[in-house]
Design goal:
By secondary structure, the protein is of the alpha+beta class. Helix content is 37%, strand content 41%.
Length: 104
């Protein structure tokens, strides 16, 4: 499966369009990570626990989007975008979406 954030796949021709595909996951913050983040806020620096949480969420959302595209018969997803939203206190959704196509 080819995944790209541009509208086309260089060197390939889009021969079939399947429409929008998406994948999402909702993740809650971990109490231990919150404590460590609070301490890190005092001295500054990267909040690695949150970085890892978001990376895992992105990977899961992309995997779900890719599976939906595969089920439609696509071999590529173009124009991929990410969005986030708060769904409850301490929980956020990470949403990945793009256009499923078949390229040759």
């Amino acid at each position: 499966m080819i995944l790209t954030n541009v509208n086309t796949v260089p060197g390939k021709k889009i021969v079939e369009h399947f429409g929008i595909v998406q994948g999402s996951t909702v993740r809650a913050k971990h109490v231990g990570r919150d404590i460590m983040a609070g301490l890190k806020n005092l001295v500054g620096g990267e909040l690695k626990g949150y970085t890892e949480l978001l990376q895992d969420a992105r990977e899961e959302a992309v995997q779900r989007m890719t599976e939906q595209a595969r089920q439609l018969g696509a071999n590529a997803v173009v124009n991929i975008r990410f969005a986030t939203s708060s769904v409850a206190q301490g929980a956020a959704e990470l949403f990945a979406y793009g256009t499923a196509v078949r390229v040759e």
